[in-house]
Design brief:
The complex is a heterotetramer, with two copies of chain A (161 residues) and two copies of chain B (120 residues). Helix content of chain A is 35%, strand content 24%. By secondary structure, chain A is an alpha+beta fold. Chain A has one domain: Heat Shock Protein 90 (2-Layer Sandwich). Chain A has a six-stranded antiparallel beta sheet with strand order 1-2-3-5-4-6. In chain A, strand 4 (122-127) and strand 5 (133-140) form a beta hairpin. The longest helix of chain A has 22 residues, at 37-58. Mean pLDDT of chain A is 88; it is low at 148-157. Chain B has 120 residues and is an alpha/beta fold. Chain B has a single domain (5-118), classed as Transcription Regulator spoIIAA, CATH 3.30.750.24. Chain B has five helices and four strands; from the N terminus they run E-E-H-E-H-E-H-H-H. Chain B is globular and about 40 Å long. The termini of chain B are far apart. Chains C and D meet through helix 1, helix 2, helix 3 and helix 4 of C and helix 2 and helix 3 of D. Bound molecules: adenosine-5'-diphosphate (ADP) (2 copies).
Chain lengths: 161, 120, 161, 120
């Protein structure tokens, strides 16, 4: 995401109060990209889930840190990057429990990453040790939600979540 | 439009009715959680959540349901979700598997009827 | 605007298509700050006028440059900075014509800066030669629109527009 | 909601009626300008701009009025603005001095009546 062709960037502090602002920002860009209403809500959902995870997990609830959201519009896709400088994690090490199990355990969460993957065509996470963490999500324009692991995940250096 | 959550709380025949208006995300979920906890503390274990005026919900909102439903069912109570109207709210209940697992009642009377059925 | 207490930043390219995005961004922040609906629309108007000027005048209509919008919420004020790296100008050298004269001339513009000043309590412009241009606007919370030149303008180092 | 401008163009007794819907800013002002120019090119010099469904206007929108009104008035034509409903649209007409200088008709019939009065 280097050239500034159709890039948009938002920087806000890590208060959950700003989730609505992040959703609206990404939603407005997605509208410019011509996404359908249904895809648009999936993209807003994915970015909300990603933002909530950064605020809760990467920053441990500290509302004074910084969240950077970058959006790039291309002819055939919208790409969203979310950057934080908090605690990184290994998505592969997170146990995926099915909904029934989560309910039985009275879990308050555990659906966020799954929803991101269902909503988007690609989801990749990269934690640069001592540096910053990057979540990258792609939604192809005019396509139905992708499978949980995509072609791109398998080929690319980035780690599929 | 402010992106917040307004809770309207009432009772019908001992059933707690929590009507959600606005945006239910990680920022507003604690309000919803407290509202349910208050009902449980007051001894009400049959709860209807009316989503007719809910415009947005994320997994943080689903997490509140998940956190209480198992516990309530173990003691003969339950949460019934009804009135979902906004396409994106319906979309989340569908894509998360919630709709299949818990069902969605059409509206408040339908949800109340489900409790009457159950407690007969 | 150095500490990250309640700061928000948006970076978008200089296409007028993005004016709506800029207005919505600033409007959302203003809402968090508790501005009344009336003040909120004045602040959105001011930021739209400022953005349109940057796009049209500073960048001469080139839609591929970058516009940076920073918003800061304090207990008693909302501060907006708009930054560009285009052509700077001297606000004092811009002739202020009254509406009647503009209409008589069939002018297509000439109201933007006046509206910004009516909408906000402070408007300051600074052009760093060879560097970047900064427009800074302040709206005090819970106050009516300020006079065209404010106390602050006269005292501060920044140049009142 | 897309932040664009939709123009609805019609005629009443030779008067051009341009109804604006949505957002009139520096991005969409050229559309509005073209619409007025087309009416003038077609020989219509009495123009009503109906703002009933206009949600937003900036100085770029006012600039379109300013660019045509003087020229039209010189040749016996005019632009009448009517139907302003959104508080923020009214606010701009007020804060810019437009309301005092040009007046705002209540609605489309009132604006049309002003032309009938003028051309009697
Ligand atoms: N951005 C992140 N930074 C650090 N840890 C994360 C992040 N996102 C997710 N995690 C970890 O992965 C787990 C699962 O995340 P998720 O599926 O979103 O469910 P939830 O956030 O509701 O627990 C979290 O509980 C957390 O331990
Ligand atoms: N950000 C800017 N960069 C360069 N020139 C500007 C800028 N803003 C305003 N100007 C100059 O000041 C003039 C008056 O601006 P304004 O009152 O906003 O009216 P308008 O933009 O409609 O002409 C402009 O025509 C332009 O020459």
């Amino acid at each position: 995401m280097n050239d500034f062709g159709r890039c948009f960037e938002l920087r806000v502090r890590s208060s959950t109060e700003n989730l609505a602002l992040i959703r609206d920002f990404v939603g407005n860009v997605a509208r410019q990209g011509g996404l359908s209403e249904s895809d648009l809500s999936l993209v807003e959902l994915a970015v909300d889930e990603a933002g909530a995870n950064v605020m809760e997990h990467a920053y441990g609830g500290d509302p004074t840190r910084e969240v950077v959201v970058r959006v790039r519009l291309d002819a055939d896709a919208i790409t969203i990057e979310m950057l934080d400088t908090g605690r990184g994690f290994d998505p592969a090490a997170v146990e995926q429990k099915d909904l029934q199990k989560l309910v039985a355990e009275g879990a308050r969460g555990g659906l966020g990453m799954r929803l991101m993957k269902r909503a988007m065509d690609e989801v990749q996470y990269r934690s640069v040790p001592g540096g910053r963490n990057e979540l990258r999500m792609v939604k192809k324009l005019g396509k139905p939600p992708g499978p949980e692991t995509t072609e791109e995940d398998r080929k690319s250096g980035g780690k599929g979540v | 439009m402010v992106r917040n959550l307004v809770l309207h709380i009432s009772q019908i025949d001992g059933i707690a009715v929590i009507a959600l208006e606005g945006f239910l995300d990680a920022h507003t979920a604690p309000q919803f959680e407290e509202a349910i906890q208050s009902e449980i503390d007051a001894g009400r274990r049959n709860i209807v959540v009316d989503c007719a005026r809910l415009l947005y919900i994320s997994s943080a909102g689903l997490g509140v349901f998940m956190g209480f439903i198992g516990e309530l069912r173990e003691t003969g109570g339950d949460i019934k979700i009804c009135g979902v109207a906004a396409p994106r709210v319906l979309q989340l209940f569908e894509v998360s598997g919630f709709k299949d697992l818990f069902g969605l009642a059409a509206d408040l009377p339908a949800a109340v009827a489900l409790f009457r059925e159950k407690d007969k």
